[in-house]
From TrEMBL:
The keyword Transmembrane applies. The keyword Metal-binding does not apply. It comes from Bacillus thermotolerans. It is found in: Cell membrane. It holds the Pfam family Caa3_CtaG. This is CtaG protein. Keywords: Cell membrane, Membrane, Transmembrane, Transmembrane helix. The lineage of its organism: Bacteria, Bacillati, Bacillota, Bacilli, Bacillales. The chain crosses the membrane at residues 12-32, 82-102, 114-136, 148-167, 188-211, 254-276.
């Protein structure tokens, strides 16, 4: 059956779109019109503006477009959502906001100690990957998916902890704590390893593990997250198999594989950037050392 039967609101989430437009407008007001109210402000660069807008566009694509609806019908789309939201949108969002805006937020007396604790590399790694893995335990996943409040809360919490996880790698604070080149590489490898158990549970399961994709009544309740209740009552649906010919187990396994593939692509890209940046700095150090040695020899000969 076509997903268009769920209606415009379920397909395109107009309220969420309006919210993101307001957030984007607020971003440009703060970073352009009102930036002189921030200590150490700098002109917004085209790159920063483009990164932030890209994060909003991609966020709407995975949480407001028909992909969100499909994520409640097929587990594959759900995992695409998760991977893109936390591994693509979050780093774009982080780098799109100028450092002087982050400084204003972080230096707030209430935020500062909390932020300092949760952005410690080891803690940030364990908490994000732990929350992600716990979320995909069947008993937790099904319980959260059947409550609008819990689902919203968990999604926002994961987004915040994803920010903490990416912060040691990507923050541009002049006086902020940053990982060195080799430590960044180790951090990325550790991040990839910690996410593997959750993907492995999904990929190698011998039977469908999520009731919200295999049990009709649980699925209908979970669909209320994105489809008005009145619409669902009028349709008299029997299950997600009406909209997909893929067996539930294969859909579940494919979702786990796609999550791992997207993770490897993103982390591989970040790893390449970190490695080449580290190699460039090492070459600069060697060049400076050679230049100093040559200068010393020249002075000695004189």
């Amino acid at each position: 059956m076509p997903i268009s039967i769920f209606g415009f609101q379920a397909l395109w989430s107009p309220y969420f779109l309006g919210f993101l437009i307001l957030v984007t407008a607020g971003y440009f007001l703060v970073t352009v019109k009102w930036r002189n109210k921030f200590e150490g402000d700098e002109p917004l660069t085209k790159r920063q503006g483009a990164l932030f807008v890209a994060s909003m566009v991609i966020l709407y694509a995975v949480k407001g477009s028909p992909i969100d609806l499909l994520g409640h019908i097929m587990f594959t789309y759900h995992m695409i959502q998760m991977a893109v939201l936390y591994l693509v949108v979050v780093p774009l969002f982080l780098r799109g906001i100028p450092w002087w805006v982050w400084k204003k937020i972080i230096d707030h007396p209430v935020v500062k100690p909390v932020f300092a604790f949760f952005t410690k590399p080891l803690i940030a790694l364990i908490l994000f990957n732990g929350l992600f893995s716990i979320y995909h335990l069947p008993i937790v996943f099904d319980y959260v998916k059947m409550s609008v409040a819990l689902h919203t809360l968990y999604t926002v919490a994961l987004f915040i902890f994803a920010l903490f996880m990416w912060w040691p790698l990507l923050n541009t604070m002049p006086d902020g704590k940053k990982l060195g080149g080799l430590r960044k590489i180790g951090y990325i490898f550790a991040d990839g390893i910690l996410l593997t158990p959750a993907c492995g549970l999904i990929i190698f399961a011998s039977a469908p593990v999520y009731a919200t994709y295999s049990d009709a009544s649980a699925w209908i309740q979970a669909m209320e997250l994105c489809v008005p209740t009145g619409t669902l009552q009028q349709l008299n649906l029997t299950g997600p198999e009406l909209f997909s010919s893929m067996p539930i187990l294969e859909d579940q396994q494919l979702g786990g594989v796609i999550m791992k593939i997207i993770q490897e692509i993103v982390y591989g890209y970040i790893l390449a950037l970190v490695f080449f940046e580290w190699a460039r700095k090492e070459r600069e150090k060697e060049g400076q050392a050679d230049e100093a040695l040559l200068q010393h020899q020249t002075n000695y000969m004189k």
